[in-house]
Amino acid sequence: MSELATRRLDAHNPAPDGTPVPRVCQSCEARHRGICGVLTPEELAHLSKVSGKKLLAPGDTLVADEERVVSFANILTGVVKLTKILADGRQQIVGLQFAPDFLGRPFSKASKISIEAATSVSLCTFPRAELERMLRDVPGFEHRLHEQSLAQLDEAREWMVTLGRKSAREKVASFLVMIARHSDPAPGSDEDGPVTFDLPLTRADMADFLGLTIETVSRQLTALRKTGAIRLESNRHVIVPDIDRLEGMMGD
């Protein structure tokens, strides 16, 4: 068994000294799939004492562009948008983050982007000093953080291809597939059945993110609905009957 595997202990497999996993961590996706997956029960217990839960409403800003960074966070639920604000006030959405992504950029004193809630968001926050301690003292933590950063870099590079080379139809299909892949399945749903989710962005934000006009986004959503690739039950609620079919329209 690898060192990483042996460190993934849960409430039914406590530490040798009997330390249980804190209750707040037992069902946390960031613990199982995020950076906390390499922490032992003792380390989780320590982290839970200095961390806190933060709730954001859609539109709330967590960190502004160029603001000093004093804490970091794991996304527990919801979608966060990353934006860059130009000197004249123009905004460009440069990325989206989902649970259990890590929010923040270690080793930088100030944020290079604005971090804003696109939907209702819940976060587990912890002080900068605690992150720096874990990077220094916890085996495997820096490696896990590096892995997650590289995964986000890969997604950003793929999105550059989407923006630079794909048609409007392919861009909208790619966006919908990205949201579908990050959506939690409905309780009791069939793994091979329809995927349902609420769009985390307004039509205006989708247009900004995709490099299209609002009218083009709306036309392409209507066109995808007419082909049967998606169903729109409201302005934001989307049903994808066959995710493979929608993926085939991405142009990859």
Describe the structure.
The chain has helices spanning 3-7, 23-26, 29-32, 41-50, 128-137, 141-165, 168-182, 203-210, 214-227, 243-247; strands at 52-56, 61-63, 71-77, 79-85, 91-98, 102-103, 114-117, 121-127, 195-198, 231-232, 237-240. The protein has 252 residues and is α+β, with helices and mostly antiparallel strands. The strands form 3 sheets. A 4-stranded antiparallel β-sheet has the order 1-8-3-6. Strands 2-7-4-5 form a 4-stranded antiparallel β-sheet, with helices on one face. Strands 9-11-10 form a 3-stranded antiparallel β-sheet, with no helix packed on it. A hairpin with a 5-residue loop joins strand 4 (79-85) and strand 5. Helix 7 packs across helix 9 (214-227). The longest helix has 25 residues, at 141-165. The chain starts with a helix and ends in a 5-residue tail after the last helix.
Compact summary:
This protein is of the alpha+beta class.
Helix and strand topology:
Blueprint: H1 3-7, H2 23-26, H3 29-32, H4 41-50, E1 52-56, E2 61-63, E3 71-77, E4 79-85, E5 91-98, E6 102-103, E7 114-117, E8 121-127, H5 128-137, H6 141-165, H7 168-182, E9 195-198, H8 203-210, H9 214-227, E10 231-232, E11 237-240, H10 243-247
Helix pairs in contact: 7-9, 8-9
For this entry, give a set of tags.
40% helix, single chain, 21% strand, 252 residues, four-stranded antiparallel beta sheet, alpha+beta, 11 strands
Structural class assignment: alpha+beta
Alpha-carbon Rg, integer: 20 Å
Q: Numbering strands along the chain, what is their spatial order in the largest sheet?
A: 1-8-3-6
Write down the overall mean pLDDT: 86
What is the count of β-strands? Answer: 11
Secondary-structure element string: HHHHEEEEEEEEHHHEHHEEH
- DSSP helical segment count: 10
| Spatial separation of the terminal alpha carbons | 37 Å
| Spans of at least 5 consecutive residues with low confidence | 1-17
Main sheet makeup: 4 strands, antiparallel
Question: Helicity level, as a percent range?
Answer: 25-40%
Strand content: 15-25%
Anisotropy-based shape: globular
